[in-house]
Amino acid sequence: MTPRIPLPTDAVTELGLPDTPDWAPAVTAARSRLRRAAYRMKSVDPVTTELVRIRNARFQHCHF
Amino acid sequence: MTGLGAAGGDGTDWDRFASSYPEPFGALSGLVAAAWAEGDPVLLELARLRTATLLRYDAERGRRSARARAAGLTEAKVAELPAWPTSPLFTPRERACLALAEQFVIDAAGVTDSLVVGVTDHLGAEGCYAFVQALSVLETFQRACLTLGIDSAPEVDELVAAGAATTPEARR
Q1: Is B110 helix (H, G, I), strand (E, B) or coil?
Q2: Which domain holds residue A37?
Q3: Which residues 61-100 of chain B have a CB within 8 Å of chain A?
Q4: Which residue of chain B comes nearest to A4, CA vs CA?
Q5: pTM above 0.90, yes or no
Q6: How far apart, in Å, are the Cα atoms of B86 and each of B95, B98, B107?
Q7: Which domains does chain B possess?
């Protein structure tokens, strides 16, 4: 997938996504915090969490 | 609206869920606060209200951001929001952002290059990136509340203040 906006660098993350740490840094950090909190919830088992994540990615045509 | 019935107690729907699940709800507040900290309050408020309309989240549509009002957003403009493509109250910048916001909420896979260019022309690449991040936050918040049956969530500004207080930076 080609980025639709000009990026400040060609660097990518370990997931192959554009690495833009200086853009919207507060949202990026807060999103990571929410993701960690969700994964730590004991009430949702890891298999269900992963199935939902993959199903959602397919529904959204997100192939990363 | 009937929710999942988080642990009982006084307070709003949101308060009851937040007391039962403080970590994820604190993180969600922090995410909302971060989005508002990095975005134009008028653009975010217009996108938030339009998202609430598209998702049929009436309670959210009834809330207002004091920050957006202070930045110049009027109730007359909010009332015209359903007619944003043609209403003279909306600027080309706001129309570009609302067009992208609507497609993002309806079906993100249908976002076109021209919708993105329309926003980038007004906000720049970094601004467009931050706006899309904020759209994702607004949508996540509203879909989560709708799914959990949370009608009485805090006002946007209360949520932002609470979220800002829970960020790692604020706790240092």
Answers
A1: helix
A2: 25-59
A3: none
A4: B113
A5: no
A6: 9, 12, 22
A7: 13-171 (1.20.1290.10)
